[in-house]
Specification:
alpha/beta, 13% strand, two-stranded antiparallel ribbon
Length: 269
């Protein structure tokens, strides 16, 4: 019997830098809906669940999930590890994919590649990602966690950082977990130079422009198609270029044992 793969998409309206970002419109649909469309393009069999908070302002997230016919779990606003675990349990997951809701340009092929890596080494890894360290453009984050690994993490993690970001406890305990990582097979590294995620208004403008340029001709456009577009029209790259390499790591370098300062940038306002 095949392992049940569940993709857990964490989403909330209370983003500090760009409130309501997942419900911003792109070509007539919400960013969250656009992202779910891309997750549904993967070749592996998987079920998707949206995990949001039980705060009233996140009612709209649940409504969007129902409209997309996607299950929704509602739980703790700040303890995302607990929310992740309980959402996965709700669907009886064997394998959990953690994919953040701020990645509407995520390439389905990259998700498949990380799953292929995991399944061709079945039983070898408790956790596999493509971001520890990252080489793909930011916004193509894929983390695979076995349910046993997630449950152990849920029981043992205590630091606020570990509860808020779900997987740092795994990263920092290689003695407890077998950890694998997928990198670009070309040897390239776009993680600090290209930003396809959304956290700032400029990111929204960038994502809107990319969809406008590529979606009509090819709804399943790849990250390579985006790179080609930016090569052809560098003015699009500049829209959010100043945020390239800026991620949440920058605020926790003194706490993260396996992340270096070379893996993030401090935003120069």
């Amino acid at each position: 019997m095949a392992d049940k793969v569940v993709i857990v998409v964490q989403a909330r309206m209370s983003s500090s830098r760009l409130p309501g970002k997942v419900m911003l419109p792109v070509l007539g649909k919400s960013i969250l809906s656009r992202m779910i469309d891309r997750l549904l393009m993967i070749s592996h069999k998987a079920q998707i669940i949206i995990a949001t908070s039980d705060e009233r302002k996140d009612n709209i997230i649940e409504q969007e999930a129902l409209q997309m016919n996607i299950p929704c779990y509602r739980g703790s606003l700040h303890n995302l590890l607990d929310r992740h675990y309980r959402a996965a349990k709700q669907l009886n997951a064997d394998i959990v994919l953690k994919i953040p809701s701020d990645c509407p340009l995520i390439d389905p092929r990259i998700i498949d590649d990380v799953l292929d890596f995991y399944f061709t080494r079945r039983g070898k890894y408790d956790y596999v990602s493509n971001l520890h360290p990252a080489t793909f453009p930011d916004g193509n984050d894929v983390e695979i966690i076995t349910m046993d690994c997630l449950e152990k993490t849920w029981k043992e993690a205590k630091r606020i950082l570990e509860l808020e970001h779900t997987t740092p406890y795994i990263w920092d305990n290689p003695g407890k977990f077998n950890i694998g990582n997928v990198v670009l097979d070309t040897g390239e590294d776009y993680s600090m130079t290209h930003r396809f995620t959304i956290d700032y208004e400029a990111d929204y403008q960038f994502i809107t422009r990319v969809f406008g340029e590529l979606y009509t001709e090819n709804p399943g456009f790849s990250y390579r198609d985006i790179l080609d577009l930016l090569e052809d029209k560098p003015e699009i790259y500049t829209i959010n270029a100043k945020y390239a390499g800026v991620n949440w790591y920058r605020n926790h370098l003194d706490e993260l044992q396996t992340i270096s300062s070379q893996q993030t940038k401090v935003l120069a306002e």
